[in-house]
Amino acid sequence: MIRAAQLPGYSWDTTGRVEASIQALIGARLAELPARAATVAARLREVTGDCRLVAVYLRPDSPDAVVGLCERLASTQSARERARLHHEIGRLRFARPGTAEVSLTGDLGQVLTGAGDRTRAYVPDPGHRDMIGSLLDDFGTGFSDFVESQHEVPGPNARLRQGFVKSWRLPDGTRVISKRANPAKPGRFAQEQFAYRAIASRLAGPVTFGRDRRLQLAPLLATIRDGASGHVYAILQWVSGETAESMLLAPGEHASLLRDYRDLMDALLDRGILWGDLSPRNILVHGPVHHLVDFEKTQAPGEAPVSHGDRGAYCRGQIGVEELGVLCPEDAVRTCLHGYLDPDTWDVNAPGPVPFPPRPEVTAVLAGRGVTDPDLGTYNQTDRQIWQVRSPDLDPVTGQPRYPGLVNFRVEHYLSCAGRTDADDYDRKTTEILIAGRRHGCFDDALGAVADAVDEAERQFVVAEVAGLLAGNDTGPVTAPHAAIRALVDRIDVLDTARQDPGTFRSACTALGKEGR
């Protein structure tokens, strides 16, 4: 068997099992091809950072013209020419010129609520109308298949996403990002598009904040409803930068970055903008410029500055614990949100109702305990418990920072990717397991037991994606690794059932931890 060249991009898997499995999959196909195919495949993987073009090149059903373009892309030294060829490969595979009736409109609502076979596009900048119109005419009814075949935009905490956010190239090689409406969140995408338009108007012109920083929105090129598939996409221009989340996860001092985060937040609040998903992953930093993306939960009810009281309620929502709290030590969060968020004032004996919008993670845990109408004291106590088990700490073995709260995210994420409708409840169970681990003196074992299982699910998902690509599935969802998902669910259920008894729980954590090793 011809061995594939070592693939970059899988160094996160310290077990080496992902690379070995993918090497075997690609190597099996290379064994049927001339020796030079291994060199081309390795180069394609190197320059694209993804296995998608490798799979297209190696599949036996790929037309000679597509194979030839792949070889040209692998051999050229020009990044611009590679980008153009990347688009041309997609066009050759999916374009069906003249097969779609296309209309461009200045009415966003018409695109978001439209029906029928007509493809509609809202293009806010008249300078982009010809380019968008030509793109849709060229691809015709194949536009959605082209987009769905493109490279996913992964996050630092999930190596595989659900296919909603893709990166691809326009005919001239310009890189764009597309986001597809998620049918599991009805109305959310439309809200985001209208919010973007309102915010873009309010932030028109140069916006500076803090220490001569600049605030910009990622430019929206078009909102498109594809008549053939019914999918709706937002197409945004790619912007350079590193996410604030990646910067916070990197070693080093983060006080300056968090100061910028606070200044940015205040700049938005001063303009009456409640950006509900002010997550560090949605802030792209490039020098002094901070680009914002993702406006699903954003509101701009008025131009008057948000009141101090409402700012405190805002930070008691997702911002404090669920966004900053899982990435930064508690002291850093307190400093960043000083004046808005102070856990020392959370009275665990306070009577009366919760005076601000409750956070879903807290209400889910309380509902699991049979509390559906908590008083403020009970809510405060539960919120404090959750923060204590989601806050970063140091791994007792390596001494390196670890992020327990991201385990919750990955449990919910991969169960959702597997199509499980109870993914949110397993997020809740994971939180309760971590709280029990803290209470029973076995937090490290409890965290490790869940993390080991979700790590294995992730590894198998990534391998399943590459196997699917090589088999010709580059437009549909990844086939879930059901055994690994079942093992993850079973492990969480065992620990959740055992958590009420300290001895039983500690034994279960120890036993499951040994299985993981």
Number of domains: 4
Name the structural class: alpha+beta
N-C termini distance: 31 Å
For the biggest sheet, the summary is: 7 strands, mixed
CATH A-level architecture of the largest domain? 2-Layer Sandwich
C-alpha-based Rg, rounded: 24 Å
Q: Regions with pLDDT < 50 over 5+ consecutive residues?
A: 1-7
Query: How many distinct helices?
Result: 20
Question: What is the name of the CATH class of the largest domain?
Answer: Alpha Beta
Mean pLDDT across the residues is: 91
CATH topology of the largest domain: Phosphorylase Kinase, domain 1
Spatial order of strands in the largest sheet: 1-2-8-9-5-4-3
Which overall shape is indicated by the principal axes computed on the Cα atoms? Answer: globular
The total beta strand count reads 16
Helix content: 40-55%
How much strand? 5-15%
Describe the structure.
Helix 4 packs antiparallel against helix 5, helix 17 (423-439) runs antiparallel to helix 18 and helix 18 (443-470) runs parallel beside helix 20. With 517 residues, the protein is an alpha+beta fold. The two termini are 31 Å apart. It has helices at 17-30, 36-48, 52-58, 64-75, 79-94, 108-113, 129-139, 143-148, 188-202, 244-249, 255-270, 308-324, 330-336, 360-368, 376-390, 404-417, 423-439, 443-470, 482-498, 502-516; strands at 102-105, 119-122, 151-152, 165-169, 175-180, 208-209, 213-217, 220-225, 232-237, 242-243, 274-275, 283-286, 289-292, 298-299, 393-394, 401-402. A hairpin with a 6-residue loop joins strand 15 and strand 16. It has a seven-stranded mixed sheet with strand order 1-2-8-9-5-4-3. It has a five-stranded mixed sheet with strand order 6-7-13-12-10. A two-stranded antiparallel sheet has the order 11-14. The chain folds into four domains: 17-91, no CATH class; 95-206 and 219-238, Phosphorylase Kinase, domain 1; 242-340, Transferase(Phosphotransferase), domain 1 (Orthogonal Bundle), CATH 1.10.510; 391-516, no CATH class. It contains 20 helices and 16 strands.
